[in-house]
Amino acid sequence: MTRDDWNKALQAAPTGLYIDGEWREASGGGTIAVHDPGTGEPLREVADATPADALAALDAAEAAGPGWAATPPRERGEVLRRAYQAIHDHIDELALLCTLEMGKSLAESKTEVAYAAEFYRWFAEEAVRIEGTFARSPSNNDRLLTMRQPVGPCLLITPWNFPLAMGSRKIGPAVAAGCTMVLKPAKLTPLSMLRLTEIMADAGLPKGVLNVVTSRSASAVTKPLMDDPRLRKVSFTGSTPVGRTLMEQGSRNLLRLSMELGGNAPFLVFDDADLDAAVAGAVVAKMRNNGESCVAANRFHVQEGVAEEFTRRLAEKLSALKVGHGAEEGTQVGPLVDADQRDKVVELVTDATDKGAKVVTGGDAPDGPGFFYRPTVLSGLSEDARILREEVFGPVAPITTFGTEAEALELANGTEFGLVAYVYTRELNRSLRVSEALDTGMVGLNTGLVSNPAAPFGGIKASGFGREGGRDGIAEYLNTKYVAVSTG
Ligand code: SIN
Predict the structure, then answer these.
(1) Residue of 130, 181, 172 whose CA lies nearest to 152
(2) pLDDT exceeds 80 at position 316
(3) How many other C-beta atoms can be found within 10 angstroms of the C-beta atom of residue 479?
(4) Whose CA is nearest to atom 5 of ligand 1?
(5) Is 158 a pocket residue for ligand 1 (Cβ < 6 Å)?
(6) Phi-psi bin for 294: left (phi > 0), alpha (psi -120 to 50), beta?
(7) Is 180 found in the same domain as 278?
(8) Ligand 1 pocket member 295 (CB < 6 A)
(9) Can you tell me the distance from the alpha carbon of 315 to that of 310, in angstroms, rounded to the nearest whole number?
(10) Which of 8, 61, 77, 413 has its CA 20 to 30 A from that of 225?
(11) 305: Cα separation from own chain's centroid
């Protein structure tokens, strides 16, 4: 990958607001700089939308709504199927943009592009399976008919960590359901989504269905939209504190909400686990996306009989990973997204070591440029180490031990979060018992990866509510209408 390739991909990315099928500058003329986390250098400037721009995007979404809702489901599905193919046709370019703005390695970015594309294929197939019901009333005097209809204009707010996939798992079901939308990508990583928007338009998505506004201040564009009674739904992926604020704002217009919020995933390894599989799964659960994922394993609880060996083997694997600029040949671990993210990781590791944790490998941030942190394993943590309670969002694996299954469950469930937990055991009864007892929306049983467009992704407790992907994903964008039919 040469600098020429970088420049070509960067120059091909649109940088304006996409409203009513047209690219335009921000009405206030403002722009936001997007940086390369591997060098700290600026890449491009994108438009900084004003509240008026956000409302213009909602005007377009509202105007396109009835036509899109009435478009045959097969046609909506075919647009999505063409988008799936077009994303694959542009996989190298999209992956490079994603790496340049977010930092992850090119191999990781390609996996993300393929993951994103799969949401369009899945929801292309779901568009034609929006079903209702028909029943006799218990008295037999009436017939009960239900139908499912698009909720209306949606606001989709996406995070910086998976710039393509998180938007795609909202756009896919919204388009399939017949909704129109305004999408606000994260200001740190808007370029790949802007390019994807252009690809969607080329795939035949009519004007006004998808509108995209980038902004330096999220609330400057989301608040006017949420205060406008024409908006009917918000789907948000991001932190729990921001999710709480959006819920308060959404109460005014009683908006439908989907909230995919923070996590603090425990990774449990029992004495009877296949240790090769557990170590391989731990590398995936920890290192996917540089650990910058809400489903990343945040803490490892390992049964006493295998703790020493598991720790040694995990440290061996993580210390062998090549750290470097994401677009360089051979890089396995890129930089973290910015200085704030890197400093948060430094702070949590320092807190743990100040309280007695031992650094088994890593434990430092190499000098810049770029915001790197070495893959790290910590052992001997004190119970009050913040890293066991707070989401680290970086390549750090803190390991603690447990004696019994009951202790493992107490540790795993001792958090306000409830997104995902990972369990490694070869015992069938324990697999089911522990999976049932975990307070999470998802469980990885002998696997370090739960993310799958065909499965319902989502959490409980402070990790939010609503499901994305699978059969449930489209339901977030549909209202059920009931028609009472008299037979008298
Ligand atoms: C996330 O980090 O928000 C989700 C990651 C995934 O879909 O795997």
Answers:
(1) 181
(2) yes
(3) 15
(4) 293
(5) no
(6) alpha
(7) no
(8) yes
(9) 8
(10) 77
(11) 35
Same-domain check for residues 252 and 333: no
pLDDT of residue 52: 98
- Angle at which helix 3-12 crosses helix 91-102, to 10 degrees, equals 100
Q: How far is the CA of 279 from the centre of ligand 1 (A)?
A: 21
On the question of pLDDT at 433 being above 90, the answer is: yes
Please indicate, yes or no, whether residues 157 and 249 belong to a single structural domain of this protein. Answer: yes
Residue 1's pLDDT is: 73
Note whether 245 and 122 are same-domain residues.
yes
Task: Give the pLDDT band of residue 368 (cuts 50, 70, 90).
Answer: confident
Q: Is residue 458 part of a domain?
A: no
Report how far apart, in Å, the C-alpha atoms of 265 and of each of 377, 384, 420, 430, 442 are.
Answer: 16, 17, 5, 19, 10
Q: How many Cα atoms within 13 Å fall on the side-chain side of residue 155? A: 33
User: Which residues have CB under 8 Å from 436's CB, separation 6+?
Assistant: none
Is this structure's pTM higher than 0.85? Answer: yes
What is the pLDDT averaged over residues 226-255? 98
Cα dihedral sign, 323-326-331-337: positive
For ligand 1, whether the C-beta of 264 sits within 6 Å is no
Q: Flag whether 311 is in a domain.
A: yes
Q: Which of 62, 292, 294, 476 is catalytic?
A: 294
Residue 362 belongs to a domain with what CATH number?
3.40.309.10
Q: Which residue did the predictor score with more confidence, 6 or 398? A: 398
- Tens of pLDDT, residue by residue over 172-214, are 999 999 999 999 999 999 999 999 999 999 999 999 999 999 9
Check pLDDT > 80 for residue 350. yes
Q: What is the DSSP string of 79-122?
A: HHHHHHHHHHHTHHHHHHHHHHHH---HHHHHHHHHHHHHHHHH
Q: How many CB atoms lie within 10 A of CB 75?
A: 13
- The verdict on the CB of residue 438 being under 6 Å from ligand 1 is no
